[in-house]
Design brief:
The protein is mainly alpha-helical. It contains 17 helices and three strands. The chain has helices at 2-11, 25-32, 60-66, 68-75, 93-105, 115-124, 128-140, 142-145, 148-151, 156-163, 172-184, 194-206, 216-228, 234-244, 253-259, 266-269, 286-289, and strands spanning 47-51, 54-58, 85-87. A three-stranded mixed sheet has the order 2-1-3. The longest helix has 13 residues, at 93-105. It is extended, with a radius of gyration of 29 Å. The N and C termini lie far apart (131 Å).
Length: 290
């Protein structure tokens, strides 16, 4: 019996050991060498994206795997699926170069003066990874990105997402200036008075501004005139002043959001201390002087 058991053990197959390993460095490096504008012979590209004056050679397979909109356009029933050259009008050539580089390598170089266009393209083509990288970059460098002309192309949905973030690195007064310029760029030839028309455009965005984070001087010198002109709802000014006076508490979730200070970096928190005294005087009736 012992010899038989030993023979069975000797004939048993060895234990199976499995392991999964990943190393995408070589793949990323090889893809990074692909020249979209002047591809090497044998690179198997099968579509040319015409953007502005540039022509980008690419692979439908790569584009379709990364982006549902591009997949529908290039491999579905749309006319572009049978065209060798496809024209894209909603993006600049510089932005498309960034998009393609990210699709092929997972890397992207972002800059404060172009990140808004890159974010808009990532949203349009449903590139979630690129979208989140752009948002993180904007949150960190918001003070440099939220300039009037730079944020004008940003869709309202993305603008609201960014402003709602507690770690948006910008002072509220500067953010308000950029938001007002964003709204004015969309006024066009409004037939209604400027103030109410602008407030209607900015309704959802103004609800996310942390007015209580502004100083009393900023509230009186900047926000109060805007409220008087009908650009900002007056109750936003009132609740911010009450916050500084420690009167009352948040009465709704939206109110609580506006009362919550942003988590600013040490550099952003540093500010010149200014003493502000509001002088209030009451004029006596003329009869009192008689």
């Amino acid at each position: 019996m012992t010899d038989g058991a030993g023979k069975l053990a000797a004939d048993a197959p060895p234990a199976l050991v499995l392991g999964t390993f990943r190393d995408h460095r070589d793949l990323s490096q090889r893809l990074a060498r692909f020249d979209f504008e002047s591809p090497a012979p044998g690179s198997s590209w099968d579509v040319v994206l015409c953007v502005g004056g540039s022509r980008f050679h690419a692979h439908r397979f790569m584009l379709g795997l990364s982006s549902m909109p591009l997949n529908a356009m290039l491999t579905g029933r749309m006319r572009e699926s049978s065209q060798m050259e496809v024209t894209l009008n909603d993006v600049t050539s510089a932005t498309m170069a960034q998009v393609l580089t990210f699709i092929y390598t997972g890397e992207v170089q972002l800059a404060t003066h172009t990140v808004v266009q890159t974010l808009s393209a990532a949203e349009m083509y449903e590139l979630v990874g690129l979208r989140e990288l752009c948002k993180a970059f904007i949150l960190q460098h918001a003070a440099h990105v939220f300039k009037p002309q730079m944020i004008e192309p940003l869709p309202e949905k993305l603008l609201c997402e960014l402003i709602a973030m507690d770690d948006l690195q910008i002072r509220e007064s500067a953010l308000l200036d950029a938001i007002l310029a964003w709204g004015e760029a969309r006024l066009g030839d409004a037939s209604t008075p400027h103030g109410p028309a602008l407030q209607a455009i900015l309704a959802d965005i103004l609800a996310l501004i942390r007015f209580s984070s502004m100083s009393v001087r900023e509230l009186y010198c900047k926000v109060k005139p805007l409220a008087a002109a009908g650009v900002i709802p007056e109750h936003y000014l009132t609740e911010a002043l009450f916050y500084h006076l420690n009167w009352g508490a948040a009465t709704s979730q939206d109110h609580q959001v506006r009362m919550t200070p942003r988590t600013l970096s040490t550099t952003m928190r540093k500010r010149k201390r200014v003493s502000f005294i509001q002088n209030v005087s009451f004029s006596e009736p003329e009869s009192a002087h008689e």
